[in-house]
Design goal:
By secondary structure, this protein is of the alpha+beta class. The protein has eight helices and five strands; from the N terminus they run αββαβαααββααα. The protein has a five-stranded antiparallel sheet with strand order 3-1-2-4-5, with helices on both faces. The chain is globular. Helix 4 packs across helix 5. It has one domain.
Length: about 180
């Protein structure tokens, strides 16, 4: 199976019928349905997927996630541990950081809280992927980087790839900013 699709299919199958959306003012203690865990899938070298698990996630979906967490590269982390160590979790999937001035880790926290159940990925270059096309783009540019880092950097500097993974754009789009 296509390496881009495998982690996405797992996450889509784990999502409950509706994705909860927290109001903008919600904090951990202020949500009617707080996050309790984060599902992390790091099997794809081009990105690491994070998915918030809310208290009202169906028992069947939680059982499936628990089963997947036995796979190499897949873990379930308590929300409080993830929140308190988000910089470390986010940095783990980055090979380089093309967005050093972005507040990517804080953006990921906000995105997970606002839309639990919706997969968000940190890409190998410090970007954020939220759609199938973003995931695919991350894989393609990662492969290009692996083949020839010097040529990749020339193309990136010239804007040849566009910038669909820019954390600032992705965070604003998901949070409605």
């Amino acid at each position: 199976m296509n390496t881009v699709l495998r982690p996405l299919i797992v996450l889509i199958s784990l999502m409950t019928g509706s994705v909860g959306v927290a109001p903008a003012w919600a904090q951990d203690g202020g949500r009617a349905n707080p996050l309790i865990e984060v599902f992390i899938d790091a099997r794809q070298p081009a990105y690491v997927i994070y998915q918030g698990v809310a208290a009202d996630t169906s028992p069947l979906a939680r059982q499936e996630m628990s089963g997947y967490s036995g796979l190499d590269g897949v873990t379930l982390v308590p929300w409080s541990v993830f929140r308190d160590n988000v910089d470390r979790y986010v940095a783990a999937g980055m090979r380089i950081n093309e967005y050093p001035r972005q507040r990517t880790a804080l953006g990921v926290l906000a995105m997970l809280k606002a839309k639990p159940g919706r997969p968000v990925a940190i890409t190998w270059n410090g970007g954020i992927a939220t759609s199938f096309f973003d995931f695919q783009h991350a894989v393609e540019v990662f492969e290009e980087f692996q083949e020839n880092p010097v040529e990749y950097e020339k193309k990136r500097a010239a804007g040849a790839f566009g910038d669909p993974l820019n954390p600032e754009v992705q965070i604003k789009a998901m949070l409605g900013g």
